[in-house]
Amino acid sequence: MIPEAMTCVEISQPGAPDVLKSTQRPTPRPGPGEALIAVAAAGVNRPDILQRQGAYPPPPGASDLPGLEVAGTIVAVGESADPALVGANVCALVAGGGYADYVTVDSRLCLPIPKGFTLIEAASLPETFFTVWHNVFERGQLKAGESFLVHGGAGGIGTTAIQLAKALGARVFTTASAAKLDRCKGLGADVAIDYATQDFVALIKDATQGKGVDVILDMVGGDYIARNLKALGTEGRLVSIAFQNGSTAEINFMTMMLKRQTITGSTLRPQSVDSKARMAQALREKVWPLLNKGVIRPVIHATYPLAQAAEAHRAIEASSHVGKIVLTI
Ligand SMILES: NC(=O)c1ccc[n+]([C@@H]2O[C@H](COP(=O)([O-])OP(=O)(O)OC[C@H]3O[C@@H](n4cnc5c(N)ncnc54)[C@H](OP(=O)(O)O)[C@@H]3O)[C@@H](O)[C@H]2O)c1
């Protein structure tokens, strides 16, 4: 029985964590090609914080409810979706609406629960794995034997990027705050750099005999943009996915030209469902086998009941976490 109304957490107005309010909304119905998921767990990501603050509005057509990833059970499918999916436990990338009892999603964006994973662990996967896969391996073209720097190695994106890059054969550098450096090394980082007291450009130059790294995944921006280009080698690729320290910079592009470097970036949420479905297929083929074998495990920092979503947001904003925070429903 699918109820007419469901419990969810909405952003009552832009602002501090307290604007997250539990409420009732009509249960969504799956459209053509869609699955309706009874949500068991929903991952919390920093973009949810930005959305709550009014700085990251949902793309046209997406739910205004926060929540970009879930795990749960498919309880109904829309026209032209495979009816055999009903009853399957899945995790899914959603364009919003995850902080709820039920959410609809294009069925192509559902992925199986990796072997031995809890629904909480599975709910922590889609947002960071789609983002890291697309930006590091598709846009950044990181290959086995190359070197890779991810800033913010202890966060949700960072812990995913370290593990995936290492598992696929890269030498991994990361930056993090001092207390989190050992955790980053434990996840596979070859070199972990304290961003507050150490100069990542100089350390990377030293560790690579002056060559620099092949790919950088940056979520910091600001003065890191010019420093990244210095830490990047010939034919290197800089991929920006966020600008926690600002999106403007004064850059001398001479190095970029002389070293034939590429500067790129992307945001996941507004991309077409077809693009995300293509990424889902690549993840299924290239990354899910690593999860099934236990080569990569998500790092779950804490869980909170859905009604305490504000607490979960406060925890992310305090940046005391390593890995992911997940809401349980
Ligand atoms: N473009 C996209 O498609 C996309 C998708 C998902 C997420 N994002 C963005 O990616 C970023 C990470 O998301 P998340 O969910 O992983 O957030 P998160 O778990 O809060 O991680 C953020 C990380 O940034 C680190 N950091 C902050 N200032 C830094 C600095 N100056 N140098 C190095 N690291 C620094 C923090 O490190 P410490 O805690 O050690 O200080 C923290 O580990 C967010 O800005 C988010 O909006 C973008």
Would you write up a description of this structure?
This protein is α/β, with parallel strands linked by helices. The chain has 2 domains: 5-125 and 270-328, Alpha-Beta Complex (Quinone Oxidoreductase, Chain A, domain 1); 129-265, Alpha-Beta Complex (Quinone Oxidoreductase, Chain A, domain 1), CATH 3.90.180.10. 29% of the residues lie in helices and 28% in strands. The strands form 3 sheets. Strands 3, 4, 5, 6, 7, 14 and 15 form a 7-stranded mixed β-sheet that branches. Strand 9 (171-176), helix 5 and strand 10 (191-194) form a beta-alpha-beta unit. The mean pLDDT is 97.
What's a quick, concise take on this entry?
This protein is of the alpha/beta class.
